[in-house]
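Researcher: Quick test of sequence recovery. Tokens follow.
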């Protein structure tokens, strides 16, 4: 289905549905913190962050495409120092898989972290970019755009860069090829199969988020947000578009083997 936040989420990437779901869960005490990736608006540098207030969550909506931080390092801060016991983790498919493995592990060192995670929200992902390559080489050196002049980044066909003055520059993805993180070239998970809820733009109209509920926990946190009136929901979603992207990523040639997986 497709969803969007009823209340305005200024920096939302698509429908703001991910923020709305988490906002409601924090307000109700269903979760006591959100482990996610935020971006410094001055440098666009990503950082692993623990968010415990709904206001901060809204402030940090939006996607960070230059991702180089160990998302899960902040789990230590959340679980050990701040004693969070009911966390939501927002992450790309690789991070969702790591958290799922942590939750299923019987390892004594991992168990306290895994059992403190109540729900995993996965953001669909084709690839991410090295920070220095994207911000330093492509935006700054090649296109003369300083990071503090960027108001929004979005991937729709190419990388759309919107500046504070309202200009929109479209950079073809081929131009970003040298910045793609090496691990992303062999990754086959588009839709965050290990998450409780997957979220993406593919398949939904502009301004909406496509939502896939995968587990009872995902359905639980979703239905509480719906019951609380924080989400507008539509069935107008083109799931085959999402499925095609997932299939294309699964089938992409393995550069090490020179064959499809
Ligand atoms: C690197 C990246 C690549 C993506 N690629 C695709 C794609 O190819 N096709 C597609 O359809 N959708 C893709 N998405 C998903 C899409 O951009 C949106 O995240 C999704 O549609 C949810 O939108 P929303 O408005 O509901 O989220 P919002 O309400 O804006 O909330 C987004 C949440 O995600 C968190 N977040 C942002 N970046 C990261 C990150 N790097 N790691 C962990 N948490 C993060 C924020 O802190 C915030 O809590 C990608 C997202 C990212 C971050
Ligand atoms: S492409 Fe795969 S490895 Fe790269 S960030 Fe996305 S999910 Fe992680």
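Model:
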């Amino acid at each position: 289905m497709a969803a969007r936040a009823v209340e305005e989420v200024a920096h939302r990437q698509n429908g703001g549905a991910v923020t709305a779901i988490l906002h409601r869960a924090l307000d109700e005490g269903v979760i006591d913190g959100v482990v996610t990736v935020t971006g410094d608006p001055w440098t666009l540098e990503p950082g692993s962050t623990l968010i415990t207030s709904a206001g901060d969550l809204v402030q940090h909506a939006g996607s960070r495409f230059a991702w180089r931080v160990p998302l899960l390092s902040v789990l230590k801060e959340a679980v050990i120092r701040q004693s969070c016991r009911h966390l939501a983790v927002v992450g790309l498919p690789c991070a969702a898989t790591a958290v799922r493995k942590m939750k299923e592990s019987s390892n004594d060192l991992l168990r306290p972290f895994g059992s403190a995670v109540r729900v995993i929200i996965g953001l669909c992902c084709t690839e991410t970019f090295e920070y220095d390559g994207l911000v330093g080489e492509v935006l700054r050196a090649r296109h003369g755009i300083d990071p503090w002049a960027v108001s929004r980044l979005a991937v729709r066909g190419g990388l759309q860069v919107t500046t504070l003055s309202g200009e929109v520059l479209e950079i073809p993805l081929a131009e970003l090829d040298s910045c793609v993180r090496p691990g992303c070239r062999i990754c086959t998970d588009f839709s965050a199969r290990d998450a409780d809820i997957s979220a993406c733009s593919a398949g939904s109209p502009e301004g909406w988020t496509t939502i896939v509920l995968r587990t009872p926990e995902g359905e639980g946190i979703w239905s509480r947000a719906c019951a609380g009136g924080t989400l507008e929901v539509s069935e107008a979603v083109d799931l085959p578009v999402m499925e095609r992207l997932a299939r294309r990523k699964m089938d992409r040639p393995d550069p090490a083997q020179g064959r499809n997986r």
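The radius of gyration is 18 Å.
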